[in-house]
Structures are given as C-alpha cells and as structure tokens.
Write a structure and sequence with these properties.
This protein is mainly α. 47% of the residues lie in helices and 5% in strands. Strands 5-6-7 form a 3-stranded antiparallel beta sheet. The protein is globular and about 70 Å long.
C-alpha cells in the first residue's frame, strides 16, 4: 500500500496534495475495522484487518490525549512526566509531524467531500483525541518500510506498507534479513517494473536462521530515544554492565549552560550562523565514550567568549579556523575549559538520571500491573539508565585525560 497503488483512489492535484504518509494514513483512517470486525475496505480489507487494533502503549497516544484536555484519565498520560527531557522534546517533534499530517488530511477531506461522504455514518471526528486517525497514522509510522518509488532516493514518498513483512520485529545486533538493492537503487533511477517486482531480501551473511526461529529486520542504527518515540520500544541494556551502546541528547543542559551567561545570545547567534546550534550528543560504543564534534565545537566557542571580556571579530577567529580545518585547538587553556564544562554537563545528567531512576524504583509497582504499563515503565527506566551510563563513561574518560 503506497502512493502508486492508492493514487487512483485519492487524486492529489493542487491545492490539497497528499504525501505518502498522509495518503496511506487517510486510507487506513476511513477503513479502520470496527471493534472485532474485519475492515470493509474492498481493496485492502483483509490486510487492514491484520493490523494492530490499538496503540495505547505508544507515547504519541499519551501526548495526543493529554493535549486534548478531554482524556485526562487515560492511564498512559502520567508516564509523560517520567520521560527524559530529550525524549520529551523528540516526542513533541513527532506530535508536530502528526498534527501537520492530520491538518493536511482534514483539508483534503474538506476539499474532496465525496471521499468521506459514504463513511459519515461511522467516521469519528478527525480532531477527536481518540480519533481513528491516531491509529491510522501510527500504523503507517511504525510499520512502513523504505521502498523506492520515486526518481530521487531521498523522496519522502519512498515508503510502503507491505503485508507479512510488516510483522518483522527489530533487532540491533542479532541475525536479520537485509533488503537487496533494487535496479532503481543500483542505477539511481525511478523504478519502471510493476510494484513489488524485484523486491528481495537477503538472509544473514554471518549465520543461519533455524527453522521455527523468528526472522528479524534491523530498523536502522537508531538510539533508544528514537526507537522509543517513533516505534514505542527500546533496545534493552545487558544487566549491570559499566558501558552500554547508547546516545544522549544534551540539548537542554547545553542550552542552559550557554544562555545563562551574558555571552549566550552572541554564542547562539554565531553557532546558528555556522550551522552548529543544536544536535549536541554524548555517545558510547563498547569501551569508547565521547562527545559529538558538534558539542565540542559549541563548547569551545562558549568557553572562548566566556574568557574574553571584550568581544570582537578577531577574538573568535581561532575558533573559525578550527571549523575551517586550519588549526586543531584554540589554546591549551580553552581545551581545559571546555572539558571542565563537559564535566559539568555530565554531572547534571548523572544527577538528574539517578534521581529519576530512584523515583521510578520507589513507585508502587502494583500501580502499573503486569500489562503494557509495566513494560513501558521499564522502557523509560532503560532510557534514564542509558543517560546515566553514557554520561558516567564520558566523564570518566575526561578525568582519565583521554583525548577526543
């Protein structure tokens, strides 16, 4: 199910064109099965009937219902308060995407009333917090795969819902099948064969999958923050290990560090102009842990301007020379300063993560029962634990005198 197979049902001429995400979610929205019944869609009814019937455990459902103001008793809403700030920020961005798509679908249906008229007897209000559209949108967002349909491989409409394949679960490191490049991918052209022709998957090159074992896909090298927000799950850490493969978005902490100083506005302006504002992370892989280059670059500028009482063009030229590749460091003093700032950032994350883990641990477990609430609580615990371990690992490397 994609823009090519649905385009005859939903013409997308101006002024109300639909993206692939919007078109597929619209079709699911107006053809959602009622209760335990099968979908009545004459085109994809049997397939739609196999899709999950609800997404109560997905964090997007929690935030949609919390913002509606009419679903305050929904059991998932309290979990929003436990999310790490970086995860909540990513969830807000996902919610913005959802709202944009919902608005586009609403406008399309208003301009093409003939499409919705035959469903008016049972269609819910698309703006309702418990709308079928939340269900439809999440089915697309969590189950679509990349499939080349357009001339450009970066075109956002290169996605499709594929029966059976959409049952494949994610594995970060285990054996998994891999999509084989199509002729369109190899030659970087728009596909000319019929839909599905040449759509192949390769078995693992480093092992075999035994009969009766689950066949996995790798959704991509995503941090747990992304997996949680986009798909509603996380990769679990292994026991009480000291290191974990993980990534921590430190946007909120670094913004406060920079903007709380009198030079903050100027630092932000310069970083924005040079393309280095935001997307600051700490990450850890195996025995290695370090800050991202973007974070190092921002902290170097922050510390440079903090140490200069008079700000002028020549003062920041050494920093500009670094990002231009003309020098490695500003000065020995600047290197010491930004690493001290990084320790402050790590300490803030460690303190916040430990307090949140203690709070989650002290909660009454009975409150969550044994269903998806307990499972999502464990996922949130894993998110905080990842932040704690990564921050501790980066701090340890700084104190050890390691270079980045």
């Amino acid at each position: 199910m994609n823009v090519r197979t649905l385009k005859s049902l939903y013409p997308t001429s101006e002024p109300t064109p639909l993206t692939a995400m919007q078109m597929i979610s619209l079709h699911l929205y107006i053809n959602r099965p009622h209760g335990n019944e099968d979908s009545l869609d004459p085109h994809y009814g049997p397939y739609i009937s196999t899709l999950p019937r609800e997404f109560d455990s997905h964090p997007l459902t929690w935030i949609v219902r919390s913002k509606s103001g009419t679903d305050s008793e929904f059991v998932g809403i309290p979990l929003l308060e436990y999310l790490p700030p970086s995860v909540h920020a990513s969830l807000d961005k996902l919610h913005d995407r959802f709202c944009q798509d919902r608005a586009a679908v609403r406008a399309y249906m208003a301009a093409n009333s003939y499409i919705s008229s035959k469903y008016d007897a049972y269609l819910t209000n698309i703006d309702d917090s418990t709308s079928d559209y939340v269900w439809a949108w999440l089915n697309v967002n969590t189950r679509c795969i990349y499939y080349r349909l357009k001339a450009s491989k970066e075109d956002p409409d290169n996605l499709t819902l594929c029966p059976i394949l959409d049952f494949a679960n994610h594995t970060p490191n285990g054996l998994h099948m891999t999509p084989a490049p199509s002729e369109a991918d190899i030659w970087d052209t728009a596909p000319v064969k019929p839909i599905g022709k040449g759509f192949k998957f390769l078995s693992p090159a480093n092992g075999s999958i035994q009969e009766g074992k689950e066949v996995f896909l790798a959704y991509g090298a995503h941090p747990n923050r992304t997996l949680f927000v986009e798909y509603g799950f996380v990769n679990r850490s292994l026991g009480d290990v000291k290191f974990t493969d993980g990534e921590v978005d430190v946007q909120d902490v670094v913004e406060s560090l920079i903007l709380d100083h009198k030079s903050g506005v100027l630092v932000k302006s310069i970083l924005e102009d040079e393309g280095y504002w935001g997307d600051w992370t700490l990450y850890c892989s195996g025995e290695s842990a370090q800050p991202s280059w973007r974070l190092i670059t921002a902290l170097r500028l922050h510390c440079l301007l903090v140490s200069n009482n008079e700000i002028h063009h020549n003062a920041i030229q050494p920093w500009r020379n670094i990002i231009a590749g003309k020098r490695e460091i500003i000065s020995d003093g600047n290197e010491i300063a930004w690493k001290e700032s990084l320790i402050t950032i790590c300490d803030a994350i460690i303190t916040k993560a430990q307090a949140s883990l203690d709070s989650l641990k002290s909660d009454e477990a009975e409150e969550y029962g044994h269903g998806w609430l307990a499972w999502m609580r464990e996922n949130i615990w894993t998110l905080w634990r990842e932040e704690l371990l990564v921050a501790m690992a980066v701090k340890q490397r700084i104190l050890r005198g390691d270079s980045f």
